[in-house]
Amino acid sequence: MEKLAGNFFLVGLMGAGKTTVGRALARRTGKTFYDSDQEIEARTGVRVATIFDIEGELRFRNREACVIRDLAQQRDIVLATGGGAVMREENRKVLASHGTVIYLRAAIDDLLARTQHDKNRPLLQIADPRAKLESLFNERDPLYREIADIIIDTTQQNVNLLVARLFDQLLASPHHPKETD
């Protein structure tokens, strides 16, 4: 296992593969994996959808900002962020200054196929989830791009091949020399 120095933060819309790719990347690099939504659930004892229902999106985003700030202080982690984490400038600054930001980008059709049966996506529990995904993409894509060190397309990609390609890009990056033991 080759180790790369630093933290890796995955950003992108829901369904882009942040958790799946993040876990595989963490295994490949020997880093600890975190998912900000799972961390929020662990800290609160309830599902993200429940927090949205009871407290609303604003209070959820406050919790998310605290989790991101806490986790970004750690070393050698891979963090899959929530799709909306980039909406807050404070989160963008924290991510951009504490590691390599990887934007996982996918086509709307793929995002829809990956999320259509998932009841834990509170923003998609509406009559027209495609229109919502298109709206979210248009709103967030510029923010993902603003902080991304690497952009990788996850549309119809095999996870192992995707992680291998991503790993090669990370190895080639002048900002991330291999760590020596």
Can you describe what's shown?
The structure is a single chain. The chain is of the alpha/beta class and 181 residues long. It has a single domain (8-169), classed as P-loop containing nucleotide triphosphate hydrolases (Rossmann fold), CATH 3.40.50. It contains seven helices and five strands. It has helices spanning 18-29, 36-44, 48-72, 89-98, 108-115, 129-147, 159-172, and strands at 8-11, 32-35, 77-80, 100-105, 150-153. The protein has a five-stranded parallel beta sheet with strand order 2-3-1-4-5, with helices on both faces. α3 packs across α4 (89-98). The radius of gyration is 16 Å and the shape is globular.
Radius of gyration: 16 Å
Q: How many independent structural domains?
A: 1
Could you tell me how far the N terminus lies from the C terminus, measured between alpha carbons in angstroms? 12 Å
Oligomer category: single chain
How are strands sequenced across the largest beta sheet? Answer: 2-3-1-4-5
Q: Please provide the count of β strands.
A: 5
Which class in CATH terms? Alpha Beta
The CATH superfamily name is P-loop containing nucleotide triphosphate hydrolases
